[in-house]
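FAQ: What does the model actually see?

It sees only this:
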Amino acid sequence: MGRARMTPWYFSPYPQELCHLPVIYICEFCLKCLKSVKCLERHKIKCKLFHPPGNEIYRKHAISVFEIDGRKNKIYAQNLCLLAKLFLDHKTLYYDTDPFLFTS
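And it is asked to produce this:
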């Protein structure tokens, strides 16, 4: 994400075509996962997000916290769940994100 390279701690059920790759690339704005740097560069040209969708609920200096409605931003919420699962052992994945409010 961005320039960071992270090693996941746990399994997350990303699409099968990405699971066998040594590295997956994640858009730092919409959290979409992509299979190559070239795909990421093409995606960045088309990506319309420059911050998480939703309401900014806190800001101090360069840190902002957003509240994301799982009903209004379903794809972003699902991508956030997949990403979170890489670092949380007991995270239950929900593809039905409608009843959840996320803080990002």
